[in-house]
Queue: 4 jobs
Job 1
Amino acid sequence: MSGEFLIFLCLALVAIAGAVLMLNLTKVVHMVVSLVFTFISIAGIYVLLSAEFVAAAQILIYSGAVTIIILFGIMLTRHNDHSETSSVGRKLLVFVGILGFAAVTYFGIYNLELGEQATELHVNNTEQIGLAIYAHYVIPFELTSVLLLVALIGAIVLAKRDDEEEEAKDK
């Protein structure tokens, strides 16, 4: 058992624990903090895979920008606590969905053909990523930024609409 394997196990456990906590916590800000732990541990796994640029992008984009946008969305919208009790049918549907996802993932990995191992794996990593993004994936790259901007504007519009409705009810 090597040190790299132990570090991978620690990072994987932190990522899984953060994801499980994110799903089970009740306060949204606590959920965002656990999501940040998940993002940072995944960035650590990228470092173990010699993908330093992807790890830096993971920390800057996901742990930074997306988390800030989530927090702004939380702050700009009103949340009335309407606690719903989940029915047995709903829990069963969620469980069937989880089993279906696990089965698809298992069979996808089981039938995976990796082909030959790359000989030039760690040479000019950042340059290869930049060429791929700006040569082949420039439209999805730009559409992602537009999507984030639209989500932020939508949160602001919803917050303003709720404020106007509250003021109309108060009068």
Job 2
Amino acid sequence: MTSAMASAPPQAGADVFDRILAAPSGLVVLDSKDVHTLIGQFRVLARHSGQAVYLWQPDTGLGSLRDAHVRVPDCQRLGNALRYMQQSMHFGVYFLLGLELPLSAMDATLLRQLARAPKDYLRRVVLIDAPPALTEHLGELATHLGSEDSQPRRLRLRDGRWLS
């Protein structure tokens, strides 16, 4: 692993996670150069924090990142997993990896509803490396983030020179 994420400290995953939690939308589109390293960082974060963090993939369904062996029953199919997320009344961050187009009309509707979820409790649905056509379809409903630090560096004036 020689990518930027692999050489990034585990704190990088925590920074991305904080940006996900701070997103104004219930739906986040996350672009990543090294998905597996990022998921690994989220797994460590979930174990240390005890927070409810889940990963859905087409081949494994919805499972806990905190406990690798814990699967959510009847959430193999995307539609069932999205309904589970929508009905949950608890804090949760749900990562969706491996989404393929076309989505059913019901799945697309559920994603739009999750984007507009009530603010009474914190729930984030995060599409990792979603197909470009899907991100275009969701448009302004989703908050778009990159896994690299996209925050502009604040310049400081020190001894008459600008430093980053």
Job 3
Amino acid sequence: MTKKLLALSISALMTSGAAFAENIVNADTTNKEVYDIHEFFSEQGNRVKLQFPIEQAAFAWQNLSRFYPTAMIERDGEVINLPHKLNDDIGKVKATVKGETKTLNEHLDSNPVDGFLVIKDGEIVFERYNTMRKTDKHNWFSLSKITAGIELAKLVNSDKVDPDDVVSNYIPELKGSVWDTVKVIEVANQATGLNATEHDEPTADSRTNPDQPFFKWIVSIGVFEGESQKMPLDVLGEMKRRTKGGQTFEYNSINTFILSRIVENVRGLPFNEILSDDIWKHMGANNDAYTVVSPKGGYPLMFFSMNSTLEDMAKFGMLLTHQVKSLARRISLQT
């Protein structure tokens, strides 16, 4: 059951880290340019554009704490320095995409990629930093969702959460709503059968149309601007059933928000503290990380907003592979 929860909770997480800057963002962006970027995202209707790879987002994606309130995910203990064993042949690997054949280096030269890192057997074998420095903290976007899947799986393993139980048993604010009929496993598998999905058809404008229920929720947590004055869980309590649960995969960041609240309620701590205590303090991280929190409720928004250096992101990824053995020799990861 745990493997199923973890695997399906982190599916469809790949997102672009692209930006259109040609220079190192935090080294080459002038004070005037920083001011203009802040002014741009402060204008009515522009905050929603932060999710798209526009010119201004190049700075925002490496400086998300300038635009949203955040909470720290603290490191501790020894810093594990990953050895470098760079292999130039990796940059020469070719792939054909949409009929065009390029080497990896050519791809990284011609596409808006901020950074690229490859680790094998605990060693850095290839790295490129195009628009960011090794010390810059880039937003993970939907890759952040894996954190909720991991923490939920741990609670299932320890019999503190029953995946076949309904969500409202863990989130009292949702009692008396449609969440009385939604199982935790359905949320983890992105198959609730409810409305307010992230890509509602046929127009697929959930993240841009203020009339869509998903947009109303994302306004309630302060990610986008809008007229909603409701608390986030109150907005979710208004969701309706559209189809039977557990039948159809429908990618939806609301599900990760729900899983994070379940984890917090069971553990009695904010999610950033849980992630710090369970993982970040024990993996030899180079730096603290941080996550965005909602102005209403102070909820850590783990569905899109882990921010860390690229190397620390890679160390986190190593914990989910056989390469964890190369870290485990020097660190003790809580289970």
Job 4
Amino acid sequence: MAQISQVSADVQIKCGAEKFYGFFRKNMFQLAQMFPKNLHACEFLEGNDFTTGALMQWSYDIVGPAKVKAKVDDVDEQNKSITYEAVEGDILSHYNFFRAKFQASPNGESGSATVKWTIEFEKADENIPTPEAYLDFVSKLSLGLDAYLATN
């Protein structure tokens, strides 16, 4: 029986946790315009808000052109976190299970925050690499979004 593994990264950002989390809740579709090299499209297929069970489709290029359908697995307003789980698409040819979560947490009174990204996965076979490329991408996306939010 295969085992679910995880990789994670903490990204320090200057904008507050609420502002970062709020962008994902209200303006996430702008990410395709902000990062057109990697994110090509994002849309809701079922539901039209970040509520548990909503279904989204992403077209992206992180380790090659791909599409994924992902359900919103959990939205936690209090802890400022959103969890997505792949339910269909190219990524599931490499991983039997793939779930990504971010949580934005304030850093004391400085107004800054830490964004923790966690990817849980189960490889389709032992030759598949860990999803470090996805973790690197969301870390860079967090820093780019932080720079954008600092000016808006």
